[in-house]
């Protein structure tokens, strides 16, 4: 049957074309890469031949272009399959090392040393985020639970490395490096699930903050453990320590009293590029002070960032530094992949495949035990353990520093880098593993007791919307029965309301016990669209006599509810009324008379309702419903 709305089908076809043409885009990019990379493959530093007339610096530009092309191919592919950008950069570096004969492959350490400036910039940006007041407010969670989790995981992993026969200093560095999680991957998962303010999100973020801080002393530890090649005396150690403390104090004083006035003077010039240059100059200056004292220049950048965290120019500096940080960090990860000893990886592939699940299990066990010891409920502790079980990009930083300091052999560094890389690739499956494991564990429940449930109104879902729905009814003395399936929410509800009943609104027997058969009105205010659809289907099948009102997540959810037989006037989109109210206030603030603004909002609301009704009618045909719903997109509403 032909669609009654050609524009919907056309839009659906365009979306399908956008999906199907992606492989074509990647193939074209690969062909472009081959064209660009072929000259670089043919070029060798020994013969000194010109490629397309390019020699010297021009040939170096061609090699840089080859690396850029590889990154442009593999980073989008890695993101498309859910592995993140870090894995894409690593793979691009591995391919460059294995398939291109360029100067970087002959001496990857030179590129790696240059790209370490990205780590310096990264720690400077981290320092900008760590305002002293913020650190102090979160000190308990960060320096308590974060320290305990990192040290426990490090102890377990170090013990495993010692049992494997590694020298104790090497084992310590490997244990510390593998104890750190991927900030990028964990934060991306928390943001995508919208759990930044949940118990799980807050705990994970606190531990990540400690790990971001811990990389600074870990890098310093590499310097202390590294073989110096000469006998150190007590006086020499004391003098070196005094120099280091003096350098840190000097940097703190400069950051506290000099940097803000300098940036104030530069800002008055109103020259953006000068501000960017000054921000980069601060990073380089701090790094040089630390390097001159024999300390990590990454520590200098971090201290400079912390000292500027309270500055009025913090956001400006962060915006100026961010592009350079991302560029150099990408180059750093490519250099790590480029310096990877593939022969060492091939010779130790059995060890790597055995070590990946072992190290992830040890780290997850440590994280679970620490969080349970701090009173975290089992489901949350289990999810933290699975989410943070992978190793992270800070491991690359630490292992690279240890290799440069002759503390970690090159072949062993390649093996542990491969372990970190595989663990990060597997981290995309952590949520799936958690769902599988949590199904086998008994979920927390509350006794379902509905002996005194006899309300005229049954509200299913007592979240932010259900609470607002219930309060006016309770204030008027209307008997209300409140039903929710979240045990934490039910406990919190006791603070301001007498009782919320525990139960799953998708179960007919639960709805019957909660009084759905005698209720005059049933309000479905659950937050997950799929669960709402299931509850609505159960109510319509078992309790059709009650007036049904449903909270819709958005327009698409509203059309789906209407397709299930819910009247359009009984569907309330959760953001519609608040958005129109804000729009009306905006018009009034612009000088529109209040009655004119209200009339305009009323007209737009009427037009929006008419458009929604058209979409509901179009979606009433089961054969074309999916195409119509898929084609729904934001559209400008215009007054006649």
UniProtKB/TrEMBL annotation:
<dbReference type="GO" id="GO:0015297">
    <property type="term" value="F:antiporter activity"/>
</dbReference>
<feature type="transmembrane region" description="Helical">
    <location>
        <begin position="50"/>
        <end position="74"/>
    </location>
</feature>
<protein>
    <submittedName>
        <fullName>Potassium transporter TrkA</fullName>
    </submittedName>
</protein>
<dbReference type="InterPro" id="IPR003148">
    <property type="entry name" value="RCK_N"/>
</dbReference>
<dbReference type="InterPro" id="IPR036291">
    <property type="entry name" value="NAD(P)-bd_dom_sf"/>
</dbReference>
<feature type="domain" description="RCK N-terminal">
    <location>
        <begin position="454"/>
        <end position="572"/>
    </location>
</feature>
<feature type="transmembrane region" description="Helical">
    <location>
        <begin position="324"/>
        <end position="344"/>
    </location>
</feature>
<feature type="transmembrane region" description="Helical">
    <location>
        <begin position="170"/>
        <end position="190"/>
    </location>
</feature>
<dbReference type="GO" id="GO:0012505">
    <property type="term" value="C:endomembrane system"/>
</dbReference>
<feature type="transmembrane region" description="Helical">
    <location>
        <begin position="86"/>
        <end position="105"/>
    </location>
</feature>
<keyword id="KW-0406">Ion transport</keyword>
<feature type="transmembrane region" description="Helical">
    <location>
        <begin position="394"/>
        <end position="426"/>
    </location>
</feature>
<keyword id="KW-0050">Antiport</keyword>
<dbReference type="Pfam" id="PF00999">
    <property type="entry name" value="Na_H_Exchanger"/>
</dbReference>
<feature type="transmembrane region" description="Helical">
    <location>
        <begin position="111"/>
        <end position="130"/>
    </location>
</feature>
<feature type="transmembrane region" description="Helical">
    <location>
        <begin position="280"/>
        <end position="304"/>
    </location>
</feature>
<feature type="transmembrane region" description="Helical">
    <location>
        <begin position="142"/>
        <end position="164"/>
    </location>
</feature>
<dbReference type="InterPro" id="IPR006036">
    <property type="entry name" value="K_uptake_TrkA"/>
</dbReference>
<dbReference type="GO" id="GO:0015079">
    <property type="term" value="F:potassium ion transmembrane transporter activity"/>
</dbReference>
<dbReference type="InterPro" id="IPR004771">
    <property type="entry name" value="K/H_exchanger"/>
</dbReference>
<dbReference type="InterPro" id="IPR038770">
    <property type="entry name" value="Na+/solute_symporter_sf"/>
</dbReference>
<keyword id="KW-0633">Potassium transport</keyword>
<dbReference type="Pfam" id="PF02254">
    <property type="entry name" value="TrkA_N"/>
</dbReference>
<dbReference type="GO" id="GO:0005886">
    <property type="term" value="C:plasma membrane"/>
</dbReference>
<dbReference type="InterPro" id="IPR006153">
    <property type="entry name" value="Cation/H_exchanger_TM"/>
</dbReference>
<keyword id="KW-0813">Transport</keyword>
<dbReference type="GO" id="GO:1902600">
    <property type="term" value="P:proton transmembrane transport"/>
</dbReference>
<feature type="transmembrane region" description="Helical">
    <location>
        <begin position="202"/>
        <end position="226"/>
    </location>
</feature>
<keyword id="KW-0472">Membrane</keyword>
<comment type="similarity">
    <text>Belongs to the monovalent cation:proton antiporter 2 (CPA2) transporter (TC 2.A.37) family.</text>
</comment>
<feature type="transmembrane region" description="Helical">
    <location>
        <begin position="24"/>
        <end position="44"/>
    </location>
</feature>
<keyword id="KW-1003">Cell membrane</keyword>
<keyword id="KW-1133">Transmembrane helix</keyword>
<feature type="transmembrane region" description="Helical">
    <location>
        <begin position="238"/>
        <end position="259"/>
    </location>
</feature>
<keyword id="KW-0812">Transmembrane</keyword>
<keyword id="KW-0630">Potassium</keyword>
<feature type="transmembrane region" description="Helical">
    <location>
        <begin position="351"/>
        <end position="374"/>
    </location>
</feature>
């Amino acid at each position: 049957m032909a669609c009654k709305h050609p524009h919907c089908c056309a839009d659906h076809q365009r979306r399908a074309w956008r999906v199907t043409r992606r492989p074509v885009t990647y193939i074209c990019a690969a062909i472009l890469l081959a064209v660009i990379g072929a000259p670089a493959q043919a070029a060798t530093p020994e013969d000194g031949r010109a490629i397309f007339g390019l020699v010297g610096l021009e040939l170096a530009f061609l090699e840089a272009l080859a690396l850029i092309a590889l990154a442009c191919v593999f980073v989008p592919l890695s993101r498309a399959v859910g592995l993140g950008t870090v894995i894409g950069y690593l793979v691009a570096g591995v391919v460059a090392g294995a398939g291109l004969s360029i100067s970087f492959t002959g001496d990857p350490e030179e590129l790696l040393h240059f790209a370490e400036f990205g780590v310096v910039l990264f720690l400077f940006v981290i320092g900008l985020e760590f305002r002293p007041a913020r650190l102090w407010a979160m000190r308990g969670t960060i320096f308590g639970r974060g320290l305990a989790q990192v040290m426990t995981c490090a102890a377990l992993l170090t013990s495993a490395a010692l049992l494997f026969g590694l020298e104790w200093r090497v084992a310590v560095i490997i244990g510390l490096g593998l104890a750190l999680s991927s900030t990028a991957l964990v934060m991306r998962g928390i943001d995508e699930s919208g759990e930044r303010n949940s118990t799980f999100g807050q705990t994970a973020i606190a531990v990540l903050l400690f790990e971001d801080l811990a990389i600074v002393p870990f890098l310093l530890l590499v310097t202390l453990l590294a073989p110096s090649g000469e006998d150190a005396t007590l006086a020499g150690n004391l003098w070196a320590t005094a120099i280091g403390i003096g350098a840190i104090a000097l940097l703190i004083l400069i950051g506290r009293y000099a940097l803000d006035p300098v940036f104030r003077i530069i800002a008055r010039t109103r020259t953006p590029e000068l501000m960017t240059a000054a921000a980069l100059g601060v990073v380089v200056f701090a790094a040089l002070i630390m390097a001159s004292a024999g300390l990590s220049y990454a520590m200098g950048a971090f201290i400079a960032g912390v000292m500027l965290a309270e500055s009025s120019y913090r956001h400006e500096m962060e915006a100026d530094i961010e592009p350079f940080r991302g560029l150099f960090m990408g180059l750093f990860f490519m250099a790590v992949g480029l310096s990877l000893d593939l022969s060492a990886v091939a010779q130790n592939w059995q060890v790597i495949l055995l070590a990946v699940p072992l190290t992830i299990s040890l780290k997850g066990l440590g994280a679970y035990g620490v969080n349970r010891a701090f009173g975290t409920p089992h489901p949350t502790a289990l999810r933290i353990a699975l989410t943070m079980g992978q190793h992270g990009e800070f491991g690359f930083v630490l292992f690279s520093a240890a290799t440069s300091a002759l503390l970690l052999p090159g072949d062993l560094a390649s093996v542990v880098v491969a372990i970190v890389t595989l663990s990060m690739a597997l981290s995309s499956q952590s949520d799936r593993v958690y769902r599988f494991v949590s199904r086998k564990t008994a979920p927390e429940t509350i006794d379902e007791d509905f002996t005194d449930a006899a309300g005229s109104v049954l509200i299913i879902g007592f979240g932010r919307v259900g609470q607002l729905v219930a309060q006016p009814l309770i204030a008027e003395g209307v008997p209300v029965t409140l039903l929710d399936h979240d045990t934490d929410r039910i406990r919190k509800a006791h603070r301001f309301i007498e009782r919320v009943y525990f139960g799953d609104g998708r179960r007919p027997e639960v709805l019957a016990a909660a009084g759905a058969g005698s209720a005059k009105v049933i309000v479905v205010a659950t937050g997950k669209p799929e669960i709402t659809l299931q509850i609505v289907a159960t109510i319509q099948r078992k309790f059709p006599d009650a007036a049904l009102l449903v909270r819709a997540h958005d327009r698409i959810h509203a059309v789906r509810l209407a397709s299930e037989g819910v009247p359009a006037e009984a569907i309330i989109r959760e953001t519609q009324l608040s958005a129109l109210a804000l729009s009306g206030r905006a018009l009034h603030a612009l000088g529109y008379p209040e009655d004119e603004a209200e009339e305009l909002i009323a007209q737009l609301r009427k037009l929006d309702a008419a458009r929604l009704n058209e979409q509901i009618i179009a979606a009433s045909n089961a054969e074309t419903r999916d195409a119509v719903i898929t084609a729904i997109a934001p559209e400008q509403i215009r007054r006649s």
